[in-house]
Amino acid sequence: MIIIVSQWKKKILQLLAVILVILVFAAAIPLMTGQLNQYIPAVGGWFEDEHPSGNPMRVENEEPSSKYDQVMDQFVIKLQDFYLEDRP
Length: 88
Known about the structure:
Shape: elongated
Low-confidence stretches: none
Number of helices: 2
Radius of gyration: 32 Å
Distance between the termini: 78 Å
Order of helices and strands: HH
């Protein structure tokens, strides 16, 4: 059985072009990942140079708070208690 394909040179060139584009993207992905290694945390580590010290829960020493700050702190605590009491 003989199949005659019209414009076979054009179709082969299109197929080769598609294969070339796929190969370029396949080669570019690892190269770009290597270049962005320092900037993207999923690919590289931003925290490799950092060495935290001390208690992570430490509180900064602040100046004495004003009356407004104390009232707001108490309000927030009361709201938290109110919403925690509603849960079964």
